[in-house]
Write a structure and sequence with these properties.
Strand content: under 5%
Shape: rod-shaped
Number of helices: 1
Number of strands: 0
Order of helices and strands: H
Helix content: over 70%
Largest sheet: none
């Protein structure tokens, strides 16, 4: 998994944790 994919995926799942 590339860094871009990881960062993008993290940004999408971020609202779920908050």
């Amino acid at each position: 998994m590339s860094w871009s994919e990881y960062f993008q995926r993290f940004g999408q799942e971020l609202p779920r944790f908050t």
